[in-house]
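The authors assume throughout that readers already know how a fold can be written as discrete tokens. In essence, backbone conformation is discretised, so a fold becomes a row of integers matching the chain in length. A single example would do more here than another paragraph of explanation. For illustration, here is how one protein appears when written out as sequence plus structure tokens:

…
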Amino acid sequence: MSFVVRHAERLLGRPIAGAVDENVGPILDYAAEGGGDDDDDDDDRANTTTNTTTKNTTTINQPARVYDYASELECDRHAAAFASCVRSSAARDVSRSGRGFAAIKVTALGDPVLLERMSTAIVEVKNLFGKFDVRGTGSIGREDFVGCYERCFHVNDGKLVDILEMLRVDSPGGGDMIDYISFSQLFTPYTLSTFTSKCNDVGPLVLATPSDEEVALLKRTSERLHALAEEASRCGTRLLIDAEHTKYQPAIDNLVLELQRKYNAKDRSDRPVIFNTYQDVTERVMTDLKRSERFDFHFAAKLVRDPIHETAERTHRCYDEVVELLLRHRCRHGPGLEIMIATHNETSIRKATDLMTELGLVPNDESVHFAQLYGMSDYLTFTLGHHGYNAFKYLPYGKVREVMPYLYWGTQERSCVYSTMS
């Protein structure tokens, strides 16, 4: 009896007959590593504005790759390759859901240094919210907001009235309490300079404010993402926006939110197109769930492990708690929310499938998907597929020199992934 079948039987608690490698769909992942095609000419390189070094950092479930930034033209080339990946995913989907997946990484579509700058600005806006939230309740009253605003910025009474009206519209129930979601809708990387140009002091927020040129480049990155989302929406492919290095993640999340508000809108489709990736961060999941409800779009998440907690036990517990939170939310609110459970952890998969049974979700429920990396944990993927669950393999492709960083990371991950499976 093969190793795969033995472990498949152990997972299921009963014998199985025949092969289990069926109903497994691909997640195509174009590996756009390095500085571009071999035939790049000097004119392309002359457009370089910032050079960064490719780095590889390890999470338990996926490599967080950072792309070399050569030029805007190179980003356009990556976007074209991703578009081809999106179309291929639609053509080759073999899952029962009838819709394929394609993975993309935002650092291939813009300058990572710029994304880091944008992330810093977003973090400083969150810090500003903390200063305005003088009572520490997570919400700012109208009077507190006015008082803090007048201390931080030169005040134009007419402008302040307009700001308060915008916040009132975005606040829950149109009330006088302002939470972080509404606050962050006002102070975005695109609009921040209109406020910080009137700051009373030069502090971290002013220093983090992007220039007009940086905003223009960020908009180009956003345009590439929107073009890919439009293509995915047109051909029925779902886009997984992968998590990357933590110093870029706030900017990536901000860009993904733009996409979700448009392409996951409930008046546009009954299913989501755009999936964001979450790495064991319950607070982020809860905040984005609230965003999806307030702005009326379908929430969709890919969940991966990241050893950010003090112990492996805490990492496992947090992952399982988020899976349970989303599965129960799906059952309370009906179809629309989708979750990709991307893990090699057998215990977590068993808990998820047991909970699905408890909640009355059939194995092939369109809201729930499972994924593992190509070449790893095949007994989990094929067992899930054999028993009717929506199972997928993450498949990187590209030139040898582009895929090598993924393959190198995979050998490194093999040495630690099984130690986390208890």
Notes: The chain has two domains: 3-113+212-420, 120-208. Residues 1-21, 34-65, 411-422 have pLDDT under 50 and may be disordered.
